[in-house]
UniProtKB/TrEMBL annotation:
Catalyzes the phosphorylation of the position 2 hydroxy group of 4-diphosphocytidyl-2C-methyl-D-erythritol. Keywords: ATP-binding, Isoprene biosynthesis, Kinase, Nucleotide-binding, Transferase. Signal peptide: none annotated. The keyword Kinase applies. Gene3D superfamilies: 3.30.230.10, GHMP kinase, C-terminal domain. This is 4-diphosphocytidyl-2-C-methyl-D-erythritol kinase. It comes from the Bacteria. Pfam families: GHMP_kinases_C, GHMP_kinases_N. One of its GO terms (molecular function) is 4-(cytidine 5'-diphospho)-2-C-methyl-D-erythritol kinase activity. GO terms for biological process: isopentenyl diphosphate biosynthetic process, methylerythritol 4-phosphate pathway; terpenoid biosynthetic process. Residues 210-282 form the GHMP kinase C-terminal domain. Residues 73-151 form the GHMP kinase N-terminal domain. It comes from Rhodococcus pyridinivorans.
Length: 311
C-alpha cells in the first residue's frame, strides 16, 4: 500500500532594522517604552512545518549551533500557542533555515516565531484573522508582531503597537554581521546604566525620518538614522566603532547599529553602491561576514502563496 508523504508548509520571514529607535525609561514591568520605525529587510529565515509524531525543532545555517532546539526556542513556543488556540496537539516537525544572524539585533528568533504562526495557520487550515495572529505574536516577544507585519511601520508600546508608514521606492542596505552576538536584555540594562551616569543624549522625534521615507531619498534619510541602544551596544562591544567607521569609509551614506546589535546596517545610495560598499567592507576585516539587502519587504508569508489574504 502507498503511504502518503505529508507536504511541508514553508514560510519566508524577513529580518528588521530600526531606522529610528527611541528608548524611554525602564517601566515597572521590566520593559522600556519605545518609539521606533521598523523596516523589514530582504535577509530571510525560512521555516517549514510538517506533521510528525511529536513536536521538534531543527535549526540549520550560520549560527545554528547556538540556537536552542527545545521548548526555549521561540518557534517551539509559537507552535504550542497555536495548538492551544486550535485545541489540538502541536505534533509537527519544525525546520528553521537561518539566514538572519543569531543574536544580531535583526529579530532572528522573533522572525521564526512569526513564521511558525503563519505556517501552522496554513498547515492546520485554521485561517485565523491577522489580528488574532498579532495577539499571539505579542505574547512571544516585542518584535514578533512586526515580523508578521513587514514593510515599514512605527512601533510604540514595547514595540508591538504598529502603524504602517508610507514609503516610496526601495532602500538599499549593506549589513556587517559580527562574530558574536549581544543579548537584548543586557543591552537595555547597559543603556539604563549609562543613563544613570548622565549619558548618552537621547535621539529626538521620528518626524523627519517619516518625511524622508515618503520622499524615497536615501540621501535625505541617511543623516536621520538614530538608535538610543547604539551607545549601549558600543559600550559592550567597542570594536563596533571600527565597523561603523569602515562602512562609511567604504562609501555608505550612514551606518547604524541594528536594534540591540551587534549587526551594523549601512544605508547606501543604490544597488550598485551596495555591491561596491559590501566588497570593500568585506576586505576591511571588521566583521564576520557582509550581506546586501533591501527594504521594505513583506512580512512572514507562505512560500508560493499568491493569496492576497496573506499580504
Ligand atoms: C531591541 C528591539 O529589537 C528593537 O526592535 C526590541 O525592543 C527587542 O525585542 P525582542 O527581542 O522581541 O525582546 P523581548 O523578547 O520582548 O524582550 C527581551 C528583553 O529585552 C528588554 N526589552 C525589550 C523590549 C522593550 N521594549 N524593552 C525592554 O526592556 C527586556 O529586558 C526584555 O525582557
Ligand atoms: N528561533 C530562534 N532563532 C534564534 N535564536 C533563538 C531562537 N529561539 C530562541 N532563541 C534564543 O534567543 C537569543 C536571541 O536570538 P535572536 O536571533 O532572536 O536575537 P536578536 O536578533 O538580537 O533579537 P531582537 O533583534 O529581536 O532583539 C539567542 O541567543 C537564542 O538563544
Amino acid at each position: 500500500m502507498l503511504s502518503v508523504v505529508p507536504t511541508p508548509v514553508t514560510v519566508r520571514v524577513p529580518s528588521k532594522v530600526n531606522l529610528h529607535l527611541a528608548v524611554g525609561d525602564l517601566r515597572p514591568d521590566g520593559y522600556h517604552d519605545l518609539h521606533t520605525v521598523f523596516q523589514a529587510l530582504s535577509l530571510y529565515d525560512e521555516v517549514s512545518v510538517v506533521p510528525a509524531d511529536t513536536l521538534s525543532v531543527t535549526v540549520r545555517g550560520a549560527g545554528a549551533e547556538s540556537v536552542p532546539t527545545d521548548s526555549t526556542n521561540l518557534a517551539w513556543r509559537a507552535a504550542e500557542m497555536m495548538a492551544e488556540r486550535a485545541a489540538r496537539t502541536p505534533d509537527v516537525a519544525i525546520t528553521i533555515d537561518k539566514g538572519i544572524p543569531v543574536a544580531g539585533g535583526m529579530a532572528g528568533g522573533s522572525a521564526d516565531a512569526a513564521a511558525t504562526l503563519v505556517a501552522l495557520d496554513t498547515l492546520w487550515g485554521i485561517g485565523a484573522p491577522r489580528e488574532d495572529l498579532a495577539d499571539l505574536a505579542v505574547r512571544l516577544g516585542s518584535d514578533v508582531p512586526f515580523c508578521l507585519h513587514g514593510g515599514t511601520a512605527i512601533g510604540t508600546g514595547r514595540g508591538e503597537r504598529l502603524v504602517p508608514v508610507l514609503t516610496r521606492g526601495t532602500f538599499h542596505w549593506v549589513l556587517a554581521l559580527a562574530k558574536g552576538g549581544l543579548s537584548t536584555p543586557v543591552v537595555f540594562r547597559e543603556l539604563d546604566r549609562l543613563r544613570a551616569e548622565g549619558g548618552p543624549q537621547r535621539i529626538g522625534s521620528a518626524d523627519a525620518v517619516l518625511s524622508a521615507l515618503g520622499s524615497g531619498d536615501a540621501h535625505q534619510l541617511a543623516p536621520l538614522l538614530g538608535n538610543d541602544l547604539q551607545a549601549a551596544a558600543l559600550s559592550l562591544d567597542p570594536m563596533l566603532r571600527r565597523t561603523l567607521r569602515a562602512g562609511v569609509e567604504a562609501g555608505a551614506l550612514a551606518g547604524i547599529v541594528s536594534g540591540s546589535g551587534p549587526t551594523c546596517a549601512f544605508l547606501v545610495e543604490d544597488q550598485h553602491a551596495a555591491v561596491t560598499v559590501s566588497a570593500e567592507l568585506a576586505g576591511a576585516g571588521v566583521c564576520r561576514t557582509v550581506r546586501v539587502a533591501s527594504g521594505p519587504v513583506p512580512g512572514a508569508r507562505v512560500v508560493g502563496d499568491a493569496d492576497p489574504a496573506h499580504s
